[in-house]
Amino acid sequence: MSGPAFSYARPADVAGALAQGARPGAAFLAGGTDLIQLWKAGLAAHAELVDISRLPLAGIDLADGELAIGALARLSDVALHPRVMAEHPLIAQAIAATASGQVRNMATVGGNLLQRTRCAYFRTQGMACNKREPGSGCGAAAGETRQAALFGASAACVATHASDLAVALTALRAELTILGPDGERRIALPDLYRLPGQTPQIDTTLAPGELIAAVQVRRAAGLAARSTYLKVRDRASFEFAVVSVAAALRLEDGAVVEARLAAGGVAPLPWRLAGAEAALIGRAPDARAFAEAAGLAVEGAQPLADNGFKVELLRRAVIRALETVGATA
Amino acid sequence: MSPGPVTRWEAGLKVTGQAVFAAETPAPGLLYAVLVEAPVGCGTVLAVDAAQARRTPGFADLISYPEAQGLKPSSVTALIREPTIHFAGQPVALVVAENLAAAQAAARAVRVEAEARPAIAALGQALDQAYTPATAGRNPAESRRGDAARALAEAHLVVRRRYETAVNNHHPMEPHAVVCCWEGDRVTVHTSTQAVFGARAAIAHAFGLPAEDARVVSRFLGGGFGCKGQLWWPWMMQAMLAARRTGRPVRLELTRAQLFTLAGRRSETVQELAVGLDADGRLTAIDHQVLAQTSTHGEYADTTAGVSRWLYACPNVTTRHRLVRTNEPQPIPMRAPGTAPGTFALESALDEAAAALGIDPVDLRVRNHGDHDQEAGRPWSSKRLLECYRVGAERFGWAHRPAAGAAGDGRWRLGSGMASTFYAQHLQPSRARVRLAADASLVVQCGTQDMGNGAYTALGQMAAEALGVPMSRVTVELGDTLLPQGPISAGSQVTVSISPAVAMATAELRAILAQLAVADQASPLAGQRPEDLDFADGLVRSRTGNVAEPLADLLARQAPAGLEAEGSADLPQVQTHSFMSHGAVFVEVGVDPDLGEVRVRRVCAAFAAGRIVNPLLATSQYVGGLIGGIGMALHERTVTDLASGRILGDNFADYLIPVHADMPTFDIALVHEDDTHLPGGIKGVGMLGTAGVQAAIANAIFDAVGRRVRRLPIRIEDILGHPDPRDGFETLT
Lengths: 329, 733
Ligand SMILES: Cc1cc2nc3c(=O)[nH]c(=O)nc-3n(C[C@H](O)[C@H](O)[C@H](O)COP(=O)(O)OP(=O)(O)OC[C@H]3O[C@@H](n4cnc5c(N)ncnc54)[C@H](O)[C@@H]3O)c2cc1C
Ligand code: SF4
Known about the structure:
The complex is a heterodimer.
Chain A: E1 7-9, H1 14-21, E2 26-29, H2 35-40, E3 48-51, E4 60-63, E5 66-70, H3 75-79, H4 82-87, H5 89-96, H6 101-106, H7 109-114, H8 120-123, H9 139-142, H10 164-171, E6 175-180, E7 183-188, E8 211-218, E9 227-232, E10 243-252, E11 255-264, E12 271-272, H11 274-280, H12 287-297, H13 309-326
Parallel strand pairs in A: 1-3, 2-3
Antiparallel strand pairs in A: 4-5, 5-8, 6-7, 6-8, 9-10, 10-11, 11-12
Helix pairs in contact in A: 5-10, 11-12, 12-13
Chain B: H1 11-15, E1 31-37, E2 43-49, H2 51-55, E3 59-63, H3 78-81, E4 84-85, E5 91-97, H4 100-109, E6 111-116, E7 135-136, E8 139-140, E9 142-145, H5 148-154, E10 157-165, E11 177-183, E12 186-191, H6 196-207, E13 214-217, H7 233-246, E14 250-253, E15 269-277, E16 283-295, H8 306-310, E17 317-326, H9 339-357, H10 361-367, E18 372-373, E19 378-379, H11 385-396, E20 407-409, E21 412-424, E22 430-436, E23 442-446, H12 455-467, E24 474-478, H13 494-519, E25 533-536, E26 539-542, E27 548-550, H14 551-558, E28 563-569, E29 580-591, E30 598-608, H15 615-634, E31 639-640, E32 647-648, E33 665-670, H16 693-705, E34 711-712, H17 716-720, E35 730-731
Parallel strand pairs in B: 1-14, 10-34, 12-13, 16-17, 23-24, 30-33
Antiparallel strand pairs in B: 1-5, 2-4, 2-6, 3-5, 7-8, 9-17, 10-15, 10-35, 11-12, 11-14, 15-16, 18-19, 20-21, 21-29, 22-23, 22-28, 25-26, 26-27, 29-30, 31-32
Helix pairs in contact in B: 9-16, 12-13, 15-16
Bound molecules: flavin-adenine dinucleotide and iron/sulfur cluster.
């Protein structure tokens, strides 16, 4: 099937894209791997698609301890970039575990962060879904809840965010450069997203017409040696995470001096495990410390009918990820 | 006839795009059709308002219930003639327009008014209405030999368990499609079907046509697995109605999402199984009760408990199949119907019994080998299952496998498991025509279909081998009702059913050629005895004298117009033997006990299925079947939303099937089996690999991490979850 007709524009430069993107009913088209799917399913009806895929925002630069990735960089280019692989393995691993080779060749970094939830109720027209049709109810909460969030959900929406990259970038405290009609602003990645509350139809804090220009990661080089992206799923490839954990540690003199932990598949946004991070600081990277951190990671989880196993799974995944990065030879 | 590893006859056509599939059939003036789905999951259509749709650009016609009243009532036409809504996603109208986008826009503009009724959304909602159908598959729904209840009460060990399997969908790569063209009252229907003659009969009946006036063509299928039969025909006929009314050819192709609702499914099952054994591990009783779903508009039950009737020797066996009608799509046979869910239950239970009795699982099965068909009281036509155990175990390294729970590889615990598989062999009547041209090239014709399983190759090969003509000189024509009637492509029956017809036609040609040769003074074979002549390597030669002549030379002189013969085979009047193919599947899995992930690492399977016409094709069928079985074991699960009755995640991102990264290494052993009771000694291979492997995986998981999972698919939560409190045995001591 396909959706309703739309007009298509390919502005020559960023300024043109911002101008056209600000028009009512306009949406940016990057790799199209999510947007076109939604359009085909009749879930995205935009009057105009503004194709930004060829704008010069695809660079991958490492300088002065900062990694800057253009929002239009293709996932495969980022994951296979030699310096990204060497200096930011967490990013490379998270992308390598994303979708399939074909999708990664099309999909962009910005589009990945802005992909919409995989909640099947959201993606099937005609089913109750407050995110797609505010006020229609949440089909998922009353139905199949395996995929549902453990944290941050509301009665109106229990969907999870599906991006793997966002989890890695959250652990790495990435920032976004956002361009809009009113100029440029910078935000921390998790601040891109909002919790569903009573308005689950609004996924992000982007204003209409705002464009993600780049992702920056700073002061993460010290984490490269001890970082891992663990993605747990039912089949070996090409599946969204049931639960995922991004973990990175920096050790000095046998003690943790820096800890980064974030989880995927468990919340409406990439979920920072701040309590667990804090609990690791100053500790030796041992089983007790990991178990305590993992215990804190699942604190406050609110499972539903079918996703209770994810609480235990997250706890174990945090331990496994920490064991992987904490191993001392 | 020597079996040959010939590569696929049609491979070149497919990889170069020359093979034309139904949806690609060129037709000038083609209109495109789109189905309009019901707004509710159970109820009645009150009105279909097409006013707005008619105004959309490119609109050509709409077919709904009123427009279908001219069709003859039948189970096939009911869904398009009657305004009852049985399940969510059921089409209530078909729109045709100048192009696909226009048809989609027009379909969106159709307003359907319906009265909703409360739906039964799941089997569990109507357990009190379960009933016993007349048949399960082609077998009685109930069976009883001996006294299972008593034998269970007296058994040394009883394993009493519940097994559950999820709904699966067939999902051939090619969706169902039709391109149909009327010329007056005659119609040509290019459609993707496993039964061109069955489709023709249904069309002729529905439209009131003489059968000759309908031609059904299905030259290539991108898979079927059981779903390209009559459930598709109502929608095909709606497209045909549109074509007739508009006087233009019409094309309809199902969407991937519609393959979840309109093409059939493997029913979910809930199986209550009790097996009783004596202290030596001999089965004394089996009680196998199966509950499955069927729709409110059709009835179908797999013979899921057939495994308990046929696979082992056991004096006391009771089986029963019951159905619950729900407002869900209609189940139909899906690759390894019945045997896939059935072996999962019985072969899992036997693994538990083996563990409880301290008997090796292979040994336990050997002890229970059935040397004849106890259910029918007939001998097997052939059965080399014992050899499958031996060969499979040896190639797998079963005897040297690590102790349960002892092997690991990094984060993975490794485990081994095995199970038996089987499939009943049936035959269909078939005709075939073989035409030999003067240049000794061969045309073989049969109105059966190639689903991608190798029918073209197998058929060509049989004729080529019989006449000693190389495969490169053979053309095979299938999938057309203008050809001699062939079998439907189902139940692994095609090769064996066609074989006698091809043998008869080629025997006739050989006899004619031999006569011509010995009577021809210009032939070096003149004066030989016809029965001494042989056909090989493009030559006619004498087995006794050292003389030969190229077949083409003989034909050029004696039959410049070529020769043609037709063969036919009917079903035997009396069945003196039971026909069954068998196999033993050995599996090694890796299980991450902390994270619950399961990956199959190695599959070694030995199959005994009569004479193998082509080892490449047979191995490919086995591997494909095993992959399907792995999908059923670990991934595939069609989920219905209880509130709306709709399928959740009707796409390949959500409906998981194994991907390349999930592929284990496969080692397939083709066990030699002579069968003098089946035509050509041939049995089917398509179904066999798809069963058994599910239980072998579950058994291997137990071996790896000590956890019994009795529900398919086995997912992360099943490995993480708490052990089943029912994990105990009833043991008489
Ligand atoms: C089968 C399948 C499997 C997948 N599996 C995974 C997986 O395992 N893990 C995972 O993380 N993802 C997965 N994905 C999602 C995939 O990664 C996303 O579809 C992809 O990253 C989106 O990028 P895109 O460039 O194609 O975005 P588009 O589809 O072009 O756009 C997505 C959204 O972002 C907006 N947008 C895009 N770029 C910008 C920008 N620079 N500024 C502002 N708005 C913008 C668009 O308007 C649109 O709303 C899967 C997708 C598919 C189809
Ligand atoms: S969880 Fe959110 S996205 Fe899913 S059905 Fe409920 S409201 Fe819609």
